[in-house]
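[job 0412] stage=complex_fold ligand=L-homoserine status=START
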Amino acid sequence: MSRVWKIGVAGLGTVGGGLLQFLAERPGFAPAGGQAVVTAVSARSRTRPRPVDISGLAWFDDPVALAVSPDIDIFVELIGGSDGPAKAAVEAALKAGKPVVTANKALIAEHGAALAVLAEAADVPLLFEAAVMGGTPAVKMLREAMVGDDVAGVAGILNGTCNFILSEMEQRGASFADVLAEAQRMGYAEADPTMDIGGFDAAHKVTIMAALAFGCAPNFAAAEIEGIDQVDLLDIRLARDLGYRIRLIASADRTPDGVAVRVHPSLVAQGHPLAETRGALNALFIEGTRIGRIFIQGPGAGAGPTAAAAADIADVMTGARRPVFQAPAVGLKPFVAVAPTRRVGKAYLRMLVKDQAGVIAAVSETLAECGVSIDSFMQKPVEDAGGVPIVLTTHAIAESVLTDAINRIEKLPAVLERPRLLRIARI
Ligand code: HSE
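[job 0412] stage=complex_fold status=DONE, emitting structure tokens
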């Protein structure tokens, strides 16, 4: 007789509701040949309309009580948030020896190392395919398929909301504020969009990717994060004239100095697959030392996380077992962050200056004094810009040198505001 796996689901939003519906319709989907049946749930509201009738399921007001219930075999956490009930429930489930499936990138990025220790001590899986790129497989790719290689780095677009906003700004010539307001009206962006537009969501995801890629403990605190809220339509237009598009690029690189995890609005050359990734799509390059470059692209939200969570449930049922990250939790390498002084890359600098003689000479003299080598230079009068924009791109340069140059340029009498720095993506 095939085994019945009793699933407890905490959090019944889009992903949780979708999972209930999927398992109600196809309980025997799993390759193990058993049955996955949701028997118990926990959510904020018991009465909110849902795609399936939950009246026949055991109800728990407290997700921690659900997590440790002897009547469930697998705990699925879809509450969200790095702390609070999600963390308490996942910890409780692992300590009680329950396999855990979660979509919670904040929880894994911020507490993944400690949770991995709990999971491996209890000898139960802790799976989170739905946490990164929705239903587009990214976690298993690094955790399983790439373990035969040494990954040098990953880079991509991991937040659909930001990519949607940047694509719309570019296509419609609309400001960040206007596109965000419209995205919120249409339900694409959250009422509080800080996690997305501030770059934190992408940083959580790339922190997880770094841990999986390099076998180190996730270290969200070491991520360097800049969101898209300061991206000006002027820069999108000027970048386009230089042959680039602006994308929120999340990257993790293994360097001789340590690991660099970064999220920045960055210039990507037109025609590059990341520049051509539009709307709410996600995309990721993985650079394997032996395999070479792999590129995946797909939806990062929508119904995909439901499928990813179901795939994790299937893994629990089949008995598939791997370390939570790439190496056993007790032996995870510490995550040594690259010091800011060691960061090197090409950059875009945009200045707004008074239209008067000698400005360009003063700017280029300052750059020369600082040792910044210019790759291209453009002055382009733009209506309503409040000054004349001058834009330049640099050859690869230490960011500390660039910051010094920006500080000095800002003080020049003809320069109207602090120069805007955007990185040029290395990928
Ligand atoms: N809010 C995320 C995004 C999806 O916009 O990509 C969930 O991680």
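The chain has three domains: 4-137+307-318, 138-299, 341-424.
[job 0412] exit 0
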